Amino acid sequence: MSEPAYAGKTFVFRVDNGVVFRNTYAADGTTLHYETVEGPTKGSEETVTLHTAEVAPGLFMVGWVEKSGMTVTHLLNLNALTVHAFWTYETGDTYETGDGRVAELHTGVLEPA
User: What is the number of other CB atoms lying within 10 angstroms of the CB of residue 99?
Assistant: First the structure.
């Protein structure tokens, strides 16, 4: 099996909520090192193991679980350089959501770095 099209590449990911990440994919496409370069968690970084599927040429579903327990799924469109992102995280507030987790859906653009 050949490496996915994002393997070995770095992108700046600008999310619709103002957060900006620098995402560097391993040469074999199995891990991602992300750094938050703008936003409330600026300076945070982590290397995560990816779970991936190619949906169509240039279209990839990429997901991972962070140390914090945050779950992240990206639908990467490398043809249009866009991302649809879905993530969930703990808030500890079971009154509002019933289970203490928040789910968010975002869009963003990729810029080759």
Answer: 11
**Nearest in space to 110 (alpha carbons), one of 8, 37, 13:** 13
The three-class DSSP label of residue 60 is strand
CATH number assigned to the domain comprising residue 31: 2.40.128.20
Residue 4 falls inside a structural domain? no
In whole angstroms, how far apart are CA 53 and each of 2, 5, 72?
12, 12, 14
Burial class (CB within 10 angstroms; exposed 0-12, middle 13-18, buried 19+) of 97: exposed
Place of tokens 């327990």: 69
Model pLDDT for residues 6-59, shown as the tens digit of each residue = 999 999 999 999 999 999 999 999 999 999 999 999 999 999 999 999 999 999
The tokens for 79 are: 């043809």
Which element (helix H / strand E) includes 20? strand 20-25
CB atoms within 10 A of CB 5: 17
For residue 3, being part of any structural domain is answered with no
